[in-house]
Amino acid sequence: MTSSDLWDEDTAEKYDDLSAEMFAPQVLDPAVDFLARLAGSGPALEFAIGTGRVAIPLAARGIPVSGIELSAPMVDQLRRKAPGEQVPVVVGDMATTRVPGQFSLVYVVWNSIGNVRTQDEQVDCFRNAARHLSPGGRFVVELWVPPIRRFPPGQSAVPFEVTDRHVGFDTYDMVTQRGTSHHYRRLDDGSLRYGYSNFRYIWPAECDLMARLAGLELEQRVADWDGSPFTSDSESHVSVWRKPIDAH
Ligand SMILES: C[S@@+](CC[C@H](N)C(=O)[O-])C[C@H]1O[C@@H](n2cnc3c(N)ncnc32)[C@H](O)[C@@H]1O
């Protein structure tokens, strides 16, 4: 039993349109370049593969890519773009689901590890990644740094986008590290649509500890797919942990 929200059909159908900016070449290409470099000849495995935003262009580079995804409706959307032979996907929880084979690269992007909402399950995601890696293989996580410094005392909500089409803000509980992203969107017909997703935030150092529990070693941490340095002001990180060559 997972603590993740189950993304429904309506959300899945609208996902690519509502995430259009994340499909833009200037956002996507550096991510695919970065992952392709680490995968070598592969194979690669994406946790929370969604509708294949990253997996499909990575597979187009000639790297075999498989996926694990909790939401069958998200996989249905992926299938409209790529057949099962091209990008095989197992519907299941990335904390526990096993797929056949060993991988040079396992990755989870766009904050998706935070969709699993307990610390134990997040540790299990790292363990599950390590289980799928061949010795020397890498686990890559793209994750935001929780913007806790923006909270004045007593405030529990932080806006992340305010435009005439979209008002998005996060609410946080500092005790459980759980929160909710709220989205109010104005649609083309003028109506308003509310959507939300729940998460548990993880600090970079907490990720490193989870990786160590899984037998992985930190190899690289940068602020973004373009390789810019990670600093105390970075709002996101792309972290790479490696399974030791002599791991069993
Ligand atoms: C923000 S989307 C990212 C999808 C895709 N990786 C991308 O970059 O576009 C998050 C995805 O995580 C999936 N997800 C959430 N919890 C999960 C879990 N425990 N195991 C597998 N997938 C999960 C959701 O169904 C959704 O497809």
TrEMBL record:
Domain spans labelled Methyltransferase: 45-137
In terms of InterPro entries, this protein maps to: Methyltransf_25 (IPR041698), SAM-dependent_MTases_sf (IPR029063)
Coiled coil spans: none
Q: Which terms in the Gene Ontology molecular function aspect does this entry carry? A: methyltransferase activity
Q: Which GO terms describe its biological process?
A: methylation
A Pfam family this chain is assigned to:
Methyltransf_25
Residues of the signal sequence?
A: none
- Keyword Nucleotide-binding: yes or no? no
Supply the Gene3D superfamilies for this chain.
Answer: Vaccinia Virus protein VP39 (3.40.50.150)
Note the superkingdom of the native organism.
Bacteria
Task: Keywords in alphabetical order, please.
Answer: Methyltransferase, Transferase
**Protein known as:** Methyltransferase domain-containing protein
Q: What organism is recorded for this protein? A: Micromonospora echinaurantiaca
